[in-house]
Amino acid sequence: LSEYLNEAMVLLKKSPVPDDDSVHDMRVLLKKSRAVLKLIGPQTDQEYNQKDINSLKDAARLMSGWRDTTVLRKTLKELKKEYPDLFAGLSGNQKIDDLLKKHDAPASPSPEMANGIEEIENLLKKTAYRIRFQSVQNPNPRLLLKELQQTYQRGVEHFVIARNSPKEKKLHDLRKKSKDFLYQLYFFRPLNSRSVKALEKRLESITKNLGRINDLAQLITALGYDYTDQSNTPAYNELIIRMREKQDKYLEKVWPQASKIFCPGISLVNLLGYKLLVI
């Protein structure tokens, strides 16, 4: 946990304006940190543990908008490369043209970003300071496994919801719970490295495809598309249809893998490949 926070701090201070890769890596480190805090929660001071989780959530929220435009542009450029003829008919669409324009990174942060960087730094420092006094010298394995079971069960619940009603918000929630499970699994590798790593690989595939679905959903939202708008050009309507088709293909890759992991009735013991597991 300390290592995650230290790495996040180094990335934050790497340059006056954090680049896209640094922002992405910082957000991953903060998600991993929150997953660890949840895992060890029952063995630490509950009040301080929740403060740390909230602080890291606030830090992630502050940087959430720093990379969004870049992700949208990257997604749109991939579509343009795949459908060049279609985009030829979209010239003049102001929102698409604006998103495709790449702006040079500023040499210094805007006042808003500077304030955000300062606040994130304070949140990380306070969290790192607090965890120094959280003594977990000999973690109770049963409590760790019990917490992992609860994280897994939340994944099962969100899988059932998303599978029966695959709305974009519910798919995104499934992705978040899958990531919690993925990041906590890392600490159980020593018990059965081969099985746990194989499970991690499948979860990474699930979260990656759900992430692509979310990126396309965010792009459609950013474009402000309304299928009932009679002024839409045929090319614009076709672009959105192609994006929806891509979402369908990604989702087709998600369900078989997710079902093998989160379908009710599957035992966590079997997933982990443990011969004996008492929770």
- The shape, in one word, is flat
What is the makeup of the main sheet? none
Unreliable spans: none
Helical fraction = over 70%
The beta-strand count equals 0
Task: Note the run of SSEs as H and E.
Answer: HHHHHHHHHHHH
Q: What is the residue-averaged pLDDT?
A: 92
Instruction: Count helical runs.
Output: 12
Structure write-up:
- It is a single chain.
- This protein is mostly helical and 279 residues long.
- Helix 1 packs antiparallel against helix 7.
- Helices cover 73% and strands 0% of the residues.
In short:
By secondary structure, the chain is mostly helical. 73% of the residues lie in helices and 0% in strands. The mean pLDDT is 92.
List keywords for this structure.
279 residues, mainly alpha, 73% helix
